UniProtKB/TrEMBL annotation:
GO terms for cellular component: apical plasma membrane; basolateral plasma membrane; cytosol; glutamatergic synapse; lysosomal membrane; synaptic vesicle membrane. It comes from Chrysemys picta bellii. GO terms for molecular function: D-glucuronate transmembrane transporter activity; sialic acid transmembrane transporter activity; symporter activity. One of its GO terms (biological process) is neurotransmitter loading into synaptic vesicle. It is found in: Basolateral cell membrane; Cytoplasmic vesicle, Secretory vesicle membrane; Cytoplasmic vesicle, Secretory vesicle, Synaptic vesicle membrane; Lysosome membrane. It is a multi-pass membrane protein. Receptor for CM101, a polysaccharide produced by group B Streptococcus with antipathoangiogenic properties. Pfam families: MFS_1. This is Sialin. Residues 39-479 form the Major facilitator superfamily (MFS) profile domain.
Length: 492
């Protein structure tokens, strides 16, 4: 039972309630064509393009580098036989090639994250101060514009390309904190998992589409059009975002009165009105550091595969460039499906089965981190069995989708008013794997042997396991007392 509107009863110890949902319940407020689900859909396409802009270089780089120098220090594995497509279709050979060795490629792939890490915390802070709509919109627009300049930068030299990738990272760094800040004003507590999983699932689908499509463009046309096409789509999306989105339900021009009242009443006692940010108690919060550790650990595996899976497919499993994109995308298609499904299940368990928020978050995090660790290690021991290799990597990445409804949205559980800042903090730490992971993996795989890649998988799986255990021990599902006005604890 939830407390009636207007009362501020302290929940019983151990209870896990959503405070003050008001008279309107989720079942009585339409979801079809609603403002909050329209926001989720637009955000979905925004993050779709964001990840397409991020990962297209992983595929294009294979085609940008001269074959005789792409592995200056690396040697293509001869353990597995070449597994090429039966289609005998001539490929395009007009794309310009560059003499970049393996270490240089590692720095190119990792350079994005040096910009990305800088704007995480500022992104969360300014989203709360000036509004998340413009910050997120211009973040994606900036990423798209710099993507359009990628072919020119590559032609000017590797230093220019690295600089452009760093600038792309600066623009993209504000997007996730800004989106979290926006959802703190838009997502009713019992719909958080659904709404956030829809919006952030766009990132996975962007990876699914970008990897094979980039491969096809490289194979049949020219790698430069990978950057031109996705960059142009990013600019086009920005126009719709500016036109259709508002920072809060109060300022939305087309929202229905019943939906506005439902959202505002459901968040009434979860948001803080204080102007200053409680930095000291925030940074001393153990539940926040539980998210930091889980986020860092998960991203080590995620970014390692995101940037190097095309290389692994080519150099170890020896798929040709055309197949490479499709098979590299398959794990992220599974992850996309898992994110959508797990968001629905998480809110169902909290709303209908009365499971506590912390129980759902910890369970989903354990599944989403231990499962991938097991199958990632297994993938290193199947030799040249292509079917099992793709299956294990797909299962590993798919199970990771549970983390979105685990630690991934836990910021909104423990401090809704500061969710953007909290995500900026955790994502700053979680960006470090993107900076050093590809460089370390490249340095460990100079000869591209199966044993070297097993080491890469072992490291990622061990870090994943540690993060899962840490979050299970110290994670929380309650709104922290420093995150609201007053000293009592609100429970979700």
């Amino acid at each position: 039972m939830q407390a009636p509107a207007g009362r501020e009863e302290e929940p019983e110890d151990g209870a896990d309630r959503t405070p003050l949902l008001g008279e309107s319940q989720p079942g009585t407020v339409p979801t079809c064509c609603s403002a909050r689900y329209n926001l989720a859909l637009l955000a979905f396409f925004g993050f779709f393009l964001l990840y397409a802009l991020r990962v297209n270089l992983s595929v294009a780089l294979v085609d940008m580098v001269e074959p005789n120098t792409s592995l200056a220090k690396n040697t293509t594995s001869k353990v597995c036989p070449e597994h090429s497509s039966a289609l005998n279709i001539p490929r395009n050979t007009t794309g310009k090639k560059y003499s970049w060795d393996a270490d240089t490629q590692g720095w190119i792939l990792g350079s994005f994250f040096y910009g990305y890490i800088i704007t995480q915390i500022p992104g969360g802070y300014f989203a709360r101060k000036i509004g998340a709509k413009l910050l997120l919109g211009f973040g994606i627009l900036g990423t798209a514009v710099f993507t359009l300049f990628t072919p020119l930068a590559a032609d000017l030299g590797v230093g220019y390309l690295i600089a452009v990738r760093v600038l792309e990272g600066l623009g993209e760094g504000v997007t996730f904190p800004a989106m979290h800040a926006m959802w703190s004003s838009w997502a009713p507590p019992l719909e958080r998992s659904k709404l956030l999983s829809i919006s952030y699932a766009g990132a996975q689908l962007g990876t699914v589409v970008s990897l094979p499509l980039s491969g096809l463009i490289c194979y049949y046309v020219n790698w430069i059009y990978v950057f031109y096409m996705f960059g142009a789509l990013g600019v086009f999306w920005f126009l719709f975002w500016i036109w259709l989105v508002s920072d809060t339900p109060e300022t939305h021009r087309r929202i229905s009165p019943i939906e506005r009242e439902y959202i505002l009443s459901s968040l009434k006692d979860q948001l803080s009105t204080q102007k200053s940010v409680p930095w000291e108690p925030m940074l001393k919060s153990i539940p926040l550091w539980a998210i930091v550790v889980a986020h860092f650990s998960y991203n080590w595996t995620f970014y390692t595969l995101l940037t190097l899976l095309p290389t692994y497919m080519k150099e170890i499993l020896r798929f040709d460039a055309q197949e490479n994109g499709f098979l590299s995308a398959l794990p992220y298609f599974g992850c996309w499906l898992c994110i959508i499904m797990s968001g629905q299940i998480a809110d169902y368990l909290r709303d209908k089965q009365n499971l506590s928020t912390v129980c759902v978050r910890k369970t989903f995090t354990l599944i989403g981190m231990i499962g991938p660790a097991v199958f990632l290690v297994a993938a290193g021991f199947i030799g040249c069995d292509y079917t099992l290799a793709v299956a294990f990597l797909t299962i590993s990445t798919t199970l990771g989708g549970f983390c979105t409804s685990g630690f991934g949205i836990n910021h909104l559980d423990i401090a809704p008013s500061y969710a953007g800042i909290l995500l900026g903090i955790t994502n700053s730490f979680a960006t470090i794997p993107g900076m050093v992971g590809p460089v370390i993996a490249k340095s460990l795989t100079h000869h591209n042997t199966v044993g070297e890649w097993q080491t890469v998988f072992y490291i990622a799986a061990s870090i994943n396991l540690f993060g899962a255990i840490f979050f299970a021990l110290f994670g929380s599902g309650d709104v922290q007392d420093w995150a609201v006005n007053g000293r009592h604890l609100h429970r979700n």
